Amino acid sequence: VVIGRIVAVDDEASAGEQTLSYVTRSITPRSGAQVLEVDEDTGDIKLVGPVNYEVRTSYTINVRVSDSAEPPMFDEGTVTVSVTDANDMPSCPPISANVTEDASIATILKNGVFCQDEDPGDTLSFSLSGPGNADLEAVVSDSEPRAF
C-alpha cells in the first residue's frame, strides 16, 4: 500500500534527459525495514507490514536521491512517517472448561477467560450464557488482562 511519495526536483530529469533513483539509507528503528520500503524508481513509500501505534508512533527514513549523470549528483533527506492510533480489536484466546452437571451455583472454573485490548481506557464487556440459563455479564473498566 502506497502511503506517500518522496518528491525530488531535477531540471534534467524534468526534461527527460536523466532519471532519478531513490535509495533507502536507513530506517529508524531498524524494525521499520519490515514495515516500510521506498520504491527506487518512483520514490513511493510503501507500507509492507503491520504497524501498531501502541508499539511505535513513528518511523524515520533516510533517503538518498541520485540522478543518472556521470558522475551522479545526489542529495539526502529524511522523512518521518507517523502512525495514527486506531481502535484495536480485543483479543481473547479460545478456552475450554468442563463443569459437572451437579456443580453448585458460583462454582469457580479452573480455566479463566483472558482477554485484553491494547487501547488505553477501553472497556471490555463479557457475556456468558448456556442453554436454559440466564445470560451473565462481566464488565472490565481498564485494559489490563483479567481472569474470570
UniProtKB/TrEMBL annotation:
Coiled coil: none annotated. It is a single-pass membrane protein. Gene3D superfamilies: Cadherins (2.60.40.60). It comes from the Eukaryota. GO terms for molecular function: calcium ion binding. SUPFAM superfamilies: Cadherin-like. The keyword Flavoprotein does not apply. This is Cadherin domain-containing protein. GO terms for biological process: homophilic cell adhesion via plasma membrane adhesion molecules. It comes from Bicosoecida sp. CB-2014. InterPro entries: Cadherin-like_dom, Cadherin-like_sf, Protocadherin/Cadherin-CA. It is found in: Membrane. GO terms for cellular component: plasma membrane.
